[in-house]
Amino acid sequence: MERIDVELGQRSYPIIIQAGLLDSGAQWLSEINTKRLLVVTNEVVAPLYLERCVAMLASTGKTVDTLVLPDGEAHKTLTTLDGIFSRALELGLSRDCALVALGGGVIGDMVGFAAACYQRGVPFIQIPTTLLAQVDSSVGGKTAVNHPLGKNMIGAFHQPSLVLMDINTLATLPAREFAAGMAEVIKYGILWDADFFAWLESHRDDLLAQQPEALNYAIRRCCEIKAEVVAQDETEQGVRALLNLGHTFGHAIEAEQGYGNWLHGEAVATGMVQAAELAQQLDWLDAEAVDRIRALLQAFELPVSAPEGMGFDQFIPHMRRDKKVLDGRLRLILPRTLGRAEVVSDVTEAQLQQLLDPS
Ligand SMILES: NC(=O)c1ccc[n+]([C@@H]2O[C@H](COP(=O)([O-])OP(=O)(O)OC[C@H]3O[C@@H](n4cnc5c(N)ncnc54)[C@H](O)[C@@H]3O)[C@@H](O)[C@H]2O)c1
Ligand SMILES: O=C(O)C(=O)C[C@@H](O)[C@H](O)[C@H](O)COP(=O)(O)O
Ligand SMILES: [Zn+2]
Q1: Domain identity same for 158 and 190
Q2: Same domain flag for 305 and 199
Q3: Which residues bind Zn(2+) (predicted)?
Q4: Does some domain include residue 154?
Q5: Do 220 and 342 fall into the same domain?
Q6: Among all ligands shown, which has an atom nearest to the Cα of 110?
Q7: Nearest CA to ligand 1 atom 5
Q8: Which of 158, 234, 243 to probe ligand 2 with, by most ligand atoms within 8 A of CB?
Q9: Separation of 333 CA from ligand 1 center, angstroms?
């Protein structure tokens, strides 16, 4: 069992990583001061894990209700959120309830946002079941839904009270979703920890085979980094923006292609290569480092170039709406070297055009 604490004063919480936790996690609920839980999941995860999750939660003596949502990024909307509120109200849940997110990042982001809003805020618990959710989205309290004009545009910072990760749930994850999670894993190596990046390169085959020790280490290291960054800067006033490496380009791809057509991790993989290429253009990063980033992502069969037909004119309207824009200026996260990223606010549109419309 691994325990990592996200240190945020009164909003601190533990991340517990353990195989089998879906059945054995009840002890961690003792500090959640509520008698009623609403578990929200989706139609793919429900048949796999809902019954076991409910049995584990109910063994604490709490009353457990459920809600099963449609699956997919296209449903990460205000309309779906309204369904969560309706279910909670129909059940008569008051402020002393807690919501439980059982699923990937889409469920986690929506349930977290519902918890931030329902009766002006109730606690929530993350039980992430995708690699992406375990290494990234279940930690740190960014919650949101999408808007047709932009990713995660409507949301709130609302920290979970507990994160329970059962790595056994990854056994049922489709290969494409596993790869998408690896994009965010590789992100931490590029932006924060060069040794971790090198470890990922040298354990590539173990990770591709989903060898448990390698997977466990990768998940733990990502959670440690995310916990450290979030503890320093909960609401992205500074260092937390680095976790957005590749996302200005990536979110543009997701929105432009239609939510769900490119997976978040796939779009971020391409966005990180674009950020690395831009850093090379600025003489920050040498060609060898860019090649290493590209090669590691490609080893997991992640895309490393923009979708067909998507150039400067398609990227730029989305990029101008990015949440990091300040005073009308784009702020991009670029790798300075492998293992260190920085916020840059003086990239010109001409430089972006050179990157996005090559030839
Ligand atoms: N809040 C954050 O800090 C943060 C960080 C990164 C990403 N995100 C968000 O997370 C979302 C992406 O999350 P995701 O990649 O987990 O996608 P997802 O939630 O759509 O899950 C991927 C697919 O796997 C299915 N699934 C989930 N668990 C499974 C399991 N154990 N076995 C089989 N199938 C399973 C899901 O139903 C879905 O079809 C995006 O909306 C992204 O914006 C948020
Ligand atoms: O936790 C963060 O901070 C991140 O930026 C993590 C990202 O991987 C994640 O996709 C996040 O949801 C993006 O945030 P946004 O503010 O750009 O919507
Ligand atoms: Zn992300």
Answers
A1: no
A2: yes
A3: 184, 247, 264
A4: yes
A5: yes
A6: 1
A7: 137
A8: 243
A9: 23
Q: Residue 169 carries which DSSP code? A: G
What are the structure tokens assigned to 324, written together? 């990091």
**Same structural domain, 146 and 264:** no
Q: Two tokens at 20?
A: 């089998």
Distance from the alpha carbon of residue 41 to the mean position of ligand 3, in angstroms: 20
Do 344 and 226 share a structural domain? yes
Q: Is 170 annotated as a binding residue?
A: yes
Tell how far the Cα of 132 is from the centroid of ligand 1, in angstroms: 6
The reply to whether 105 sits in an annotated binding site is yes
> Is 228 in the same domain as 342?
yes
Q: Which ligand is nearest to the CA of 226?
A: 2
What Cα–Cα distance (Å) separates residue 35 from each residue in 30, 31, 115, 244? Answer: 11, 11, 16, 37
Tokens of 109: 């982001």
Residue-number span of the structural domain to which 80 is assigned: 2-170
What ipTM does this complex have?
0.99
* Identity of residue 171: A
Q: Which residue has the tokens 């946002």?
A: 113
125 and 264 share a domain? Answer: no
Burial class (CB in 10 A: 0-12, 13-18, 19+), 201: middle
Quote the pTM value: 0.98
Contact 106, 76 (CB under 8 A): yes
89 and 10, same structural domain?
yes
The domain that holds 327 is classified in CATH as 1.20.1090.10
The answer as to whether 175 is a domain residue is: no
**Which of 106, 170, 247 has most ligand 1 atoms within 8 Å of its beta carbon, as the pocket-test mutant?**
106
Which of 124, 147, 170 terminates a domain? The answer is: 170
C-alpha distances (whole Å) from 33 to each of 26, 70, 125, 232 are 13, 29, 12, 27
Q: Give pLDDT tens digits along the chain (359 positions).
A: 999 999 999 999 999 999 999 999 999 999 899 999 999 999 999 999 999 999 999 999 999 999 999 999 999 999 999 999 999 999 999 999 999 999 999 999 999 999 999 999 999 999 999 999 999 999 999 999 999 999 999 999 999 999 999 999 999 999 999 999 999 999 999 999 999 999 999 999 999 999 999 999 999 999 999 999 999 999 999 999 999 999 999 999 999 999 999 999 999 999 999 999 999 999 999 999 999 999 999 999 999 999 999 999 999 999 999 999 999 999 999 999 999 999 999 999 999 999 999 87
